Amino acid sequence: MNIKFFKYILLLGIILALGWYFFIKGHDYKIIFETTQAPGIVYSTLTGWNNWEPTTNKVVKTISKRPFTNLSQELSISSDSLISIDWVIKRKNDSTTQVTALLTDKNHSFYQKLRVPFFKTDFVKCALSTLKHIKEGLIIHKSEYKLSHVSQSTIPKQYGVYMSLESSLHDKANQMIKHAGVLMQYIRENNIKISGDPFVEVTHWNLQEDTINFDFCFPISKQDSMPISKNIHIKALQEKAALKILFNGNYRVSDRAWFTLLDYAETNHIDIKKLPIEIFKNDPHSGESELTWEAEVYIPIN
After folding, report:
1. Helix axes 39-47, 122-142, angle to 10 degrees
2. CB 73 within 8 A of CB 291
3. Is 281 within 8 Å of 197 (Cβ atoms)?
4. CATH 3.30.530.20 residue ranges in the chain?
5. Which of 69, 277, 35, 260 minimizes the C-alpha distance to 146?
6. Is residue 158 within 8 Å of residue 196, measured between CB atoms?
7. What is the pTM of this model?
8. Alpha-carbon distance 7 to 2, whole Å?
9. Which InterPro entries match (predicted)?
10. Do residues 7 and 218 touch, judged by C-beta distance below 8 A?
11. Does domain 26-145 have CATH number 3.30.530.20?
């Protein structure tokens, strides 16, 4: 009687396990890797996957996202092969981020579940190759910039002329380049003396849509009055407590400093205002190595 009961329980367990594996389990293959980069940097790299591909090769479609922690994407391999990837990004400890990729063959999922435990299918080979490409890309990208340790500091008080701009995070530097000439023309035509390094103050950051509004500024000595302009205005940047980090590298990817500051604040339970300020210490047209370009990056503490 006990043996029969045990057999029934075992058979039921096998049926339930197979039912879970084939019909409930939400992925066909799972890969985990680790990186020393902040979760936000990994997340931004994945959401910008197509930015690193040829312009005619939009291989990835982002289906849904939760900033810095979760991302669902579809990777088009061929006309009849579509791989779904659910990413889970989380801090493992102070120095390590764990990245989990849950991959599903959208068109042949049942077939993959049958074969994956026993064979290295083309799907598995593609999954391994894709994740190797992502991991190596993160390593290469990390060599393209440098970040200092985070410290508590004070945003310096400044007064400047500025233009209010908006863009995707990826396109911020292009918008600065596009409008720098307009600001400089206003400054030259009105004989205004620049008193420091150009800076950006983010006024709104939509994390979900990956877009920002920001003021692109050139600091000047305080004036009693200024010539009227439709698009150029005057502002005072007030001194305030902030987290600070030094960024070296191409200013196009200075947002890597932003993500590191956000991660530091979350890890250390510091209440911040997610509106970064960047002060650019170098002229990108000087011909110097990009790793010598420096920016002071701040994020205000509430």
Report:
1. 120
2. no
3. yes
4. 26-145
5. 260
6. yes
7. 0.86
8. 9
9. AraC_E-bd, Reg_factor_effector_dom_sf
10. no
11. yes
**What is the DSSP track for 290-301?**
GGG-EEEEEEEB
In angstroms, the CA 282 to CA 53 distance is 29
Q: In residues, how long is the chain? A: 302
CB atoms < 10 A from the CB of 82, how many? Answer: 16
CA–CA distances in Å: residue 173 to residues 123, 275, 300 = 38, 17, 22
User: Which residue is associated with the tokens 């698009």?
Assistant: 231
Tens-level pLDDT at each residue, the chain (302 residues): 566 656 555 555 555 444 444 454 567 788 899 999 999 999 999 988 776 555 556 578 899 999 999 999 988 876 667 888 999 999 999 889 999 999 888 776 656 666 656 667 777 788 888 889 889 989 999 999 999 999 999 999 999 999 999 999 989 999 999 999 999 999 999 888 999 999 999 999 999 999 999 999 999 988 777 787 889 998 888 999 999 999 999 999 999 999 999 999 999 999 999 999 999 999 887 778 999 999 999 999 99
